[in-house]
Specification:
The complex is a heterodimer of chains A (407) and B (373).
Chain A (H helix, E strand, L loop, with lengths): L2 H29 L14 H34 L15 H30 L6 E8 L2 E6 L11 E4 L1 E5 L4 E7 L4 E3 L8 E3 L5 E5 L5 E6 L12 E7 L1 H12 L10 H12 L21 H4 L16 E2 L4 E2 L3 H8 L3 H9 L9 H9 L1 H4 L26 H11 L4
Parallel strand pairs in A: 1-5, 4-10
Antiparallel strand pairs in A: 1-2, 2-3, 5-8, 6-7, 9-10, 11-12
Chain B lengths: L3 H23 L4 H23 L24 H17 L2 H25 L5 H38 L2 H24 L5 H25 L3 H9 L1 H4 L12 H4 L2 H4 L4 E6 L2 E6 L8 E3 L6 E8 L7 E10 L2 E8 L8 E6 L12 E4 L7 E5 L2
Parallel strand pairs in B: 1-4, 3-9
Antiparallel strand pairs in B: 1-2, 4-7, 5-6, 5-8, 8-9
Helix pairs in contact in B: 1-2, 3-4, 4-5, 5-7
The chains are: A alpha+beta (407), B alpha+beta (373).
Chain lengths: 407, 373
């Protein structure tokens, strides 16, 4: 090899080592982040704890095996480096070593397999369910509906989106499906992932030890805005959950005559009700205003906005309805105070008007969606996501005033 | 450097490229035309490459060119196949499109094989070398096509047999054929020295048997139950009353994949209707389902006689002033039997004055309320 080639090689090696060290350093530092709500190493419920109890020993065993393998490779590389010595005697096979090195990993894997199967069966149990919630994925948000369960005061079904509200310390069973493509539901602090598949119903157990908010992320690539298809599970103590249920069962009240919100209600009836349902909203003739997302949206559904301001997020939990300070106040509340702060909802002072207005002004500009009205041939003229409604600033003022009343 | 043939094909490739660029620039949004032109360009480019590679198939420039007085290789089947293809296309034009397509397939296959064979036979004076050249070029095409045809020869006739015979006989035939294949496999494995002709003969007899059975099955047509079920077309008229449906193919409908995913199981037990929702162990008379989503429920009849489950889910204005009730139902189910009902409701319960319900026609005071939030 020429000297020039040798120099080039060593430069390349140095660059490679520096790059690898940089990546490893970044990965290491990322692991030290304190504000990591989707950290898989911090279980906050018994189901996630089961996974954690399995993954930690497995990682430890894998780590030890890895160190032994690397050490052996390193030893062989250094000890037997070509220094011009004669080639040692070549032998074929060493049965004892070969059998031993087959049996040992097999035994390790068998041991891990026993505990893995035990965990899988534990996580698949449905016979100890205390509460059931239907979870439906669609591009790019999650809908939650609560079947009638009178023991929790749910005398009529409840429907909401973005934030899944559950009672803490209760074994909740999610029944997942999808209206369009495959999605995957994952709240790392509460359990593993489960795919939501059109035409199928998959179950996922969730239980939170303490009240609080637990963040999650769709983990099956599902189109343009997969990366911002978020979800949050909100665990409330029992009294707070009962209060939340009571609030969700009420119908939306019409704003007082002559207010800006009342004008916003008219805008909503003209524009938004084509897709978004508000239970209790009436048309001018007094008949109930029924949304028709099945005629306008490919998935056939759009978020029910009856109690929008009882949630902390909007647009598939992608943006906060609360300002930064108010959000911090809720997220960092103690277990005892959390329920009270969450149930306060979004007050006028805490409303994140900036993002909400931006959304109303041009939703696809914030969240990439298939919402260009000139390119809907593939979906028979139906949108995937919210289109730009071309609202005037005046209409946006009115709509924000109306939406703020949907507590 | 360039041969005459390759010059011509390179010229056509370049011309296609220019036309493609002009087409994209001048014709807005016509993807199909652009794809067709690009395909032509690639195909002609490939031919140009081939012509360049084999020097236009000119044996005189090869290293081991065939002498002019070399003995002819022998007869070829491919001109005959090509002719049959042309005739079949003609016949197909006035009879049936399937015959036309078969003729077209024979024409293309025969033509390609003929050209490759003709070229390879004059590649050199060495027949073995010529055969290997042919193999290298045509085997990547031949083997997958032959494998597909071989699989189709088994699968299509076998499916005709299974559709013609009764369900019980079908199960027996399936088991018997499986046993014969297994036994054959064991014999071949235990007797690796078995004569090649014996193995080929046995396989040929089996294939001929299946094809003959398939022809017989196709001639006999589908079994009566399937024909009647198709004629009956229950789900088109959707009467959903107490009328009886005799021929519905229950086992074919109740697929395993559907059975594994019901939202609820609805049972009619001794004249009483109740539902069990997935994940909840206590029976209920109210279930909640998702809007705008395909939902499957299992209906299980545990009451004497035949009964069906009917879902009523509001009304729809089909014309101005004409309102039609929306409902769907299972077939009449015998006691001890069950059936899946799949449906989709697009409007929430609040859109209807009447509640959505499951009921059993002819049975009063028994219903399950369906909530659609």
């Amino acid at each position: 090899m020429s000297k020039r080639n040798s120099t080039r090689m060593s430069t390349m090696t140095r660059r490679f080592v520096a790059g690898a060290a940089g990546v490893a350093g970044i990965a290491f530092l990322a692991g030290c982040a304190s504000n990591a709500p989707q950290d898989t190493w911090q279980p906050k419920g018994p189901n996630a704890q089961k996974i954690d109890d399995l993954q930690k020993p497995v990682f430890a065993i894998a780590g030890i095996v890895g160190i032994i393998v690397f050490a052996a490779i390193g030893y062989a590389v250094i000890k037997f480096k070509d220094r011009g010595q004669p080639i040692p005697e070549q032998t074929h096979g060493k049965p004892v070593l070969e059998i031993g090195m087959t049996i040992l990993p097999a035994l390790i894997l068998a041991g891990i397999g026993v505990f893995t199967f035990q965990t899988i069966f534990d996580l698949a149990k449905t016979d100890d369910t205390e509460m059931v919630i239907n979870v439906t994925g669609q591009q790019w948000w999650w809908e939650y509906d609560y079947p009638v369960q009178e023991q929790y005061g749910i005398t009529d079904p409840i429907i909401t989106s973005g934030q899944l509200v559950i009672p803490a310390g209760t074994k909740v069973l999610l029944r997942e499906t999808s209206r369009d493509v495959i999605h995957s539901y994952w709240i790392p602090a509460l359990n593993g992932k489960r795919d939501a598949v059109p035409g199928r119903v998959h179950t996922l157990r969730l239980e939170a030890d303490e009240p609080g908010i637990y963040a999650g992320q769709c983990t099956e690539f599902c189109g343009l805005s997969h990366a911002v298809m978020r979800m949050e599970a909100v665990a409330l103590d029992k009294p707070a959950f009962n209060a939340w249920v009571k609030g969700q069962l009420s119908l939306a009240a019409s704003p007082a005559e002559g207010t800006l919100a009342k004008e916003g209600e008219s805008v909503f009836l003209n524009q938004c009700v084509r897709c978004h349902q508000v239970n209790g909203l009436k048309k001018a003739d007094g008949s109930p205003a029924i949304a028709a997302p099945e005629d306008n949206v490919w998935s056939g559904a759009a978020p029910n906005l009856t109690h929008l301001m009882s949630r902390n997020t909007f647009a598939g939990a992608s943006w906060d309805l609360l300002t930064k300070e108010c959000r911090k106040d809720v997220w960092e509340a103690s277990s005892e105070e959390f329920g009270k702060k969450y149930l306060a909802g979004v007050s006028e002072e805490c409303l994140n008007q900036t993002d909400l207005r931006r959304w109303l002004r041009n939703a696809p500009a914030m969240k990439p969606m298939y919402a260009d009205p000139t390119k809907l041939a593939e979906t028979g003229g139906k949108y995937r996501g919210m289109p730009n409604l071309g609202l005037s600033e005046d209409d946006i003022d009115k709509l924000v005033a109306y939406l703020a009343t949907l507590k | 450097m360039f041969t005459n043939g390759s010059k011509y094909l390179i010229g056509v490739t370049g011309f296609s490229a220019v036309v493609l660029v002009l087409y994209i620039a001048l014709v807005d949004g016509a993807v199909g035309g652009a794809v067709a032109l690009a395909s032509i360009m690639l195909a002609v480019g490939l031919l140009a490459g081939l012509a360049l590679f084999n020097r236009d198939g000119d044996v005189q420039v090869g290293d081991v060119a065939a002498p002019a007085n070399a003995a002819p290789v022998g007869s070829s089947l491919w001109p005959l196949v090509t002719t049959v293809g042309i005739v079949a296309m003609g016949v197909g034009l006035i009879t049936h499109e399937i015959i036309f397509l078969l003729g077209l397939t024979a024409l293309v296959a025969g033509f390609v094989e003929w050209v490759i064979q003709g070229w390879s036979e004059s590649a050199s004076s060495d027949r073995k070398y010529n055969a290997s050249v042919r193999g290298r070029l045509i085997h990547p095409l031949e083997f997958p096509v032959l494998a597909t045809v071989g699989a189709a020869v088994i699968v299509v006739p076998f499916s005709r047999i299974m559709l013609a015979i009764s369900k019980t006989a079908g199960a027996i035939v399936f088991i018997l054929v499986g046993c014969i294949v297994l036994a054959g496999g064991i014999v071949f494995a235990l007797r690796p020295s078995l004569k090649k002709t014996v193995v080929i003969g046995l396989c040929a007899v089996g294939a001929v048997g299946i094809v003959a059975g398939g022809i017989a099955g196709a001639s006999a047509g589908k079994r009566d139950q399937l024909v009647k079920a198709a004629e009956e077309d229950h789900f088109a008229h959707k009467e959903c009353g107490e009328e009886k449906s005799k021929y519905f193919d229950f086992n074919a409908e109740a697929k395993v994949s559907m059975r594994s995913n019901p939202t609820a199981t609805i049972e009619f037990i001794d004249g009483k209707l109740q539902a069990r929702e997935l994940g909840l162990n206590t029976p209920t008379t109210r279930i909640t389902i998702q809007k705008s989503n395909n939902i499957s429920v299992i209906f299980r009849n545990k009451t004497e006689g035949e009964h069906r489950l009917t879902l009523h889910y509001g009304e729809k204005e089909v014309q101005e002033g004409v309102v039609e009730e929306l409902h769907t139902c299972t077939q009449m189910i015998e006691e001890g039997d069950e059936q899946i009902l799949t449906f989709r409701i697009d409007k929430p319960s609040i859109a209807s004055e009447k509640p959505y319900t499951f009921s059993v026609p002819g049975v009063e005071d028994q219903s399950i309320e369906v909530f659609v939030p």
